[in-house]
Amino acid sequence: MNNPEKKNIFRRIFMSNIFENIYHFLLMYAWLLLSIVGAFVGLVIIIFVLEWMFPKDVHILNYALTDKTFKELYSNHHYHAAIFIAEGDTSYVNDHLKNLPNKDMLRDCYLHVGEYSKAEKIGRDFLNLNPDMSDVSDDDKEMSKLSLDFFHAVAARDLFRLYERMGDREKQLEMYNELKKFDNDKRFSKVNDMLAKHGYKLPITDEEHSDIYTLEHNLKYDIICGLHLENPDAAIDSLKNYINHVWQVPKFKSSLKLTFVNRLISWYLEKNDIFQAQAMLLNGINIVPAIDKEEDLDPLGDFAEYCYILHDYKNARRFMNVYMRFMDKYYSEEDLGYLLAEARIIKYQNKVSSENIDRLIHCCRGLRTQISKNFAGMTTSQQEYFSQELKEPFSYALALLNEYPNNEKLVELCFENEVFNRGLLMRTDALLRNTLINSSDTTLLNDYEQYIAFKQELIARDEVVGPGNFARRMYLKQKITELEKELSVKCSEFARSNYSDIRVADIKSSLSREESLITYVEMPGKHGSSLGAFLLNKKEGLLFLPMCSSEELSSLAEIARTNTPGLCVDNKAYHYLFEKLAGKIDPKGNVVYSPAGIVHRIPLMALFIDDNTTIGDKYNLRALANPIDSYKKGTKKEYEIEQMKVALWGGIDYGMADSENGNVVKTRAVLRGDNLIYLPGSLSEVDNISRMLKGKVGSVTPYTGNSATESSFKREASSADIIHVSTHGFFNEDKEHEHGSAMHNSGLFFANANAAWKDDYKPQSFQTGYEDGILRADEIETQNLGSCELVVLSACETGLGEIKGDEGVYGLQRAFKLAGANNILMSLWSVPDAATEELMRRFYEFLLSGKDIDRAFYSAQKSMKDSKNPIYGVRDWGGFVLLH
Q1: What angle do CA 430, 435, 440 make, to 5 degrees?
Q2: How many Cα neighbours within 13 Å face the side chain of 415?
Q3: Positions of E strands within 707-861
Q4: Which of 135, 196, 213, 433, CA to CA, is 20 to 30 A from 800?
Q5: Residue 423 DSSP label
Q6: Rounded percentage of the chain residues whose pLDDT exceeds 70
Q7: Could you give the CA distance from residue 625 to residue 592 in angstroms, rounded to a whole number?
Q8: 365-369 contacts: CB < 8 A, separation 24 or more?
Q9: Is residue 739 very low, low, confident or very high in pLDDT (cuts 50, 70, 90)?
Q10: C-alpha angle with apex 458: 456 to 464, nearest 5 degrees?
Q11: Averaged pLDDT for residues 841-866
Q12: pLDDT at residue 500, rounded to an integer
């Protein structure tokens, strides 16, 4: 039963005066509460609808959420995630003044993760900032202008440091000149005084050191660093004096002192002044204990490296361990600085363990990602410097592999590094060109055409000596850099989306059952470079094989320099370069190889295994510019010989010496100042090939005599499927004429070239379309040969050039690859004129018989090798190589 007393108690409570007042309040003010709640809910709904309908104009809720999330991620050093948030809402970091602090934090995020091109964009925005001050009162205008001066000074300083990281000397000098403005008229001192007068603190000050950290102190160091670009000795003296000054100030931050010491040590090492570098190192060791704040330990990483370079290994390890604790707290494991620090600490430990190899794998893969991210927005010179600066971990991995060649993890890591690094600059350039050429954006195409036109004029003006040429060249260089940067940035997202870090399994799956891939690699060592090779096929998997020692490699290089044909018949070359691989390769299958170092100069197919048999006789060997091409095979359009358009140049009238000298030329190689002698075999070669192909291919167009001009090549080559050039060639001019650009030091000769080559004629003024008859490699690379299936360079030494590490040979072969040609047939030594004519005739005969390019080339060589005519030796047929 229900208890009536309990009911009475509850009734009395709920009917009391307290509840009566509550009821009264709710009845009287409920409408007001509901109205407020309803208005708030309605406002939120309206904002959501407006943000959904007009996302570019309305972003109240999104902004608040983005701002809070971004700042939390930034303060917790999650830079990748912070970038993702900021880039997801571009209005959050637009050019409005209130967003400047946010943009500065985003710039710092980009620096941490290594996306320098994006950091540069924000830095440039800051440098060019010129806000509207029309609504600023007269009393505040002076303050505002001085504040803007301060802001520009800091922006110039930050850009100066960024360009130093990027290795862009010209841009550094530009920012150095900006910084000198503040040094000369003391504007930064006025800024500091004015801000202090109004009670402001500079972002670079703190309470403890407010009298020390003025803008003047911070910029002084960067101005000295800029001076080093123009006068290294003066900069060293200035920095020494500056260090002596700050040494006397007890409150001057120890971390900044260590930064100065690091810089001075690096300059002494550049001068190879080990004694002074070691003296500064001792000063630095005394400074380190005085750094009392963990966030000030950033300079310790570079200082540890200098300890290592100067053989103080104990302190290198000790300081690096402290530095890694700093990195763990303030950096993410994927950040560029962290990856480089990780590689160094493995190097300092100098031991192979499973943990260290795993860390090295993480480091190298992370660096490959960082390089790919940055390349898309950099100029060519910046790319070259950036990639070289980050290659130390890759070199260290190879050095470890030299000691532990059977470690499977190391073998796989080093092979993937090689696949990534080999021809990296060339691949990036080709991707950019293809993106631009195939773009439907007319503005982008016009900018690219202008960029190419400027490059072509700059190359041509290198041969002009008249007044005004210097100023025009400076202008062209500036415009080329600006356009290159602009085009690269516009194509950056496309390039990033096309990046994939190719692994061993990817390439292995692309190989057929009988196919093998050989990747030669130069191995760093304490006593010089040695040669190794990676072998990949279905049967063996991935193997690493040391091929020859540094001493054996040196002996090969010396013979190759003086007598490469003799090296081919020497069994020693086969023993050093191929014998260890032979037992692991299926002779019935294709063997593709990517050369490195000395292998670039040696035709493997022509190496004799015994007195009668060459490698080409036993193996179906093909040369690849890059091992990654084996993975991407089949992506190139297939051509039928019957449909091809063929353009040939030969029997060229070089002018002057042709009529003066009746001597018969024996080879097609010449030195600077030599007469360019008419090549009778060249004319019969082109005539015979033209008659042979006529009616059997799409079209044949020969250019001979005076019509075989440089301009005719530039005009007609872009539409040809086969380009055949039979002429004199040159590589590596004498010291007097050697050019700073390796791509300018090799080329081909066309009509009327003798004046410029023999008499060193240079015009006094530039005219559009000026041609001197010398087609250099840097001119060729600006052509569009994307539809060209085969380039035949029937000239001497056309496969030679300056070998630059992973990028291979800088010369004609690189030029034609950059221009887009698919296959290049070229020579590695001076080949007799008559023998060249015979080899080319046989090559086209086999090509017309239905053989593909590879088999036609091999068959032509073999037919001459096996010929009963005793006049043909390896010098006559072995010097040509076919590069895919």
Answers
A1: 155
A2: 28
A3: 722-726, 729-731, 746-749, 774-776, 790-794, 801-803, 809-811, 823-827
A4: 433
A5: T
A6: 77
A7: 10
A8: 365/416, 365/501, 366/333, 366/334, 366/339, 367/336, 367/339, 367/340, 367/343, 367/393, 367/394, 368/416, 368/417, 368/420, 368/501, 369/334, 369/501
A9: low
A10: 115
A11: 87
A12: 64
- pTM of the complete model: 0.80
Residues in the chain: 884
pLDDT in tens, 47-94: 555 555 555 444 444 555 677 777 888 888 888 888 888 877 766 666
Alpha-carbon gap, residue 50 to 728, rounded angstroms: 71
> In 3-state terms, what secondary structure has residue 880?
strand
More confident residue, 797 or 408: 408
Tell me, what's the pLDDT at 732? 66
Placement of tokens 């862009």 in the chain: 168
| CA distances to 123, 317, 352, 526 from 307, in Å | 33, 9, 22, 19
Phi, psi of 364 (to 5 degrees): -65, -40
β-pairing, 590-594 with 620-623? parallel
Categorize the per-residue pLDDT at 786 as very low, low, confident or very high, splitting at 50, 70 and 90.
confident
Q: Are 317 and 349 in contact (CB under 8 A)?
A: yes
Check if the beta carbon of residue 725 is closer than 8 Å to that of residue 794.
Answer: yes
Main-chain phi, psi angles of 726, to 5 degrees: -115, 105
Q: Is residue 619 predicted with pLDDT exceeding 60?
A: yes
Mapped onto helix, strand or coil, the DSSP state of residue 790 is strand
Kindly report, residue by residue over 801-831, the tens digit of the pLDDT: 666 666 666 778 888 888 888 888 888 877 7
Structure confidence at residue 15 (pLDDT): 53
Task: Measure the CA–CA gap between 279 and 27, rounded to whole angstroms.
Answer: 86
The residues, any chain, with a CB within 8 Å of residue 731's CB and separated by 6 or more, are 745, 746, 797, 798, 800, 801, 811, 812
* Mean pLDDT across the chain: 78
| b/e burial code for range 158-167 (CB count within 10 A of at least 16 → b) | bbbbbbbbbb
Q: How many helices (H) and strands (E) does the chain have?
A: 39, 16
Closest-CA residue to 400 (of 307, 314, 523): 523
- Please provide the DSSP assignment of 515-546 as one string: -EEEEEEEEP-TTS-EEEEEEEETTTEEEEEE
Q: Which residue has the tokens 């893969």?
A: 365
Question: Is residue 37's pLDDT more than 70?
Answer: no
Residue with tokens 């006593």: 527
- Give 155-186 as a 3 state SS string: HHHHHHHHHHHHCCHHHHHHHHHHHHHHHHCC
**Residue partners of 716: CB distance under 8 A and separation at least 6:** 647, 701, 703
- Separation CA 154–CA 365 (nearest Å): 34
Give kind and range of the element (H or E) at residue 590: strand 590-594
Amino acid (one-letter) located at 539: K
The single-letter DSSP state of residue 292 is -
- Residues facing residue 776 across a β-bridge: 747
- List pLDDT tens digits, range 477-500: 888 888 887 777 777 665 555 556
| Ranges assigned E (strand) in 445-559 | 516-523, 530-537, 541-548
**Cβ partners under 8 Å of residue 676, min gap 6:** 654, 657, 658, 670, 728, 749, 753, 754, 757, 758
Give every CB contact of residue 633 below 8 A, 6+ residues apart in sequence.
510
234 pLDDT exceeds 90?
Answer: yes
Give CA–CA dist 219/158, Å, rounded. 10
Residue in the structure block whose two tokens are 């010491």: 261
The runs of H, that is alpha helices, within 4-78 are 4-14, 17-53, 60-75
